[in-house]
Amino acid sequence: MKRHRLAGSGRMPALHLQRGDALLVVDVQRDFLPGGALAVPDGDRVVPVLNEYIALFAREELPIVFSRDWHPADHCSFQARGGPWPPHCVAGSPGACFAPRLKVPAVATVVSKATTSAADAYSAFERTCLAEWLHGRGRRRLFIGGLATDYCVLATVRDALAAGFEVMLLVDAIRAVDVHPGDGARALQAMRAAGAHPVTLAALDRAVHA
Ligand code: VGL
Ligand code: ZN
Predict the structure, then answer these.
(1) Which of the ligands is closest to the CA of residue 151?
(2) What is the pLDDT of residues 150-175, one digit of tens each?
(3) C-alpha–C-alpha distance, residues 39 and 36, integer Å
(4) Residue 27 bears catalytic tag
(5) How many Å lie between the centroid of ligand 2 and the Cα of residue 106?
(6) CATH of residue 162
């Protein structure tokens, strides 16, 4: 029996990058990698994949934004202050650095968040100028990946949708903390239900257009 390629056979049409797109890399910092203060299991696995997205967006001269968790030493989210987390991503410390293998361009847009001791912020949009910055550059669609699926990626995706952006979630470039088993899977479901579209490198049209 001959096989036919039919619509709905599971094969997605190639996705093209467009004017109005931007890449947002969430919190790919040493403290969230294996060996770090708040290690995300397999957190390092997002780095080579994100590097491919970074190269694609750089080639198309589309904006690439890196968010980072950037806490004071006495941050309210730390256990010493009654918060849920061990100390992590203290501003200027080695653990707060971007992953060494992450190919952050020489000139990059960096958004620091949760920078005051009294307030935490999982979302890269929370008390930052990121939404205005992106809107001001005519961005309509954000490709979002990084760490961690069930905290900062989830909160960032929700805020991006609320701010009116279309969101493409890089499902091959996110990893979850999974404090409670299934947190990552639930976060993924919640993001899809909120309107984020899952995307992978394989689904992106990587051909060079003249
Ligand atoms: C994060 C826990 C605490 C994150 C930040 O980047 O997902 N998670 N602070
Ligand atoms: Zn934090």
Answers:
(1) 1
(2) 999 999 999 999 999 999 999 999 99
(3) 5
(4) yes
(5) 25
(6) 3.40.50.850
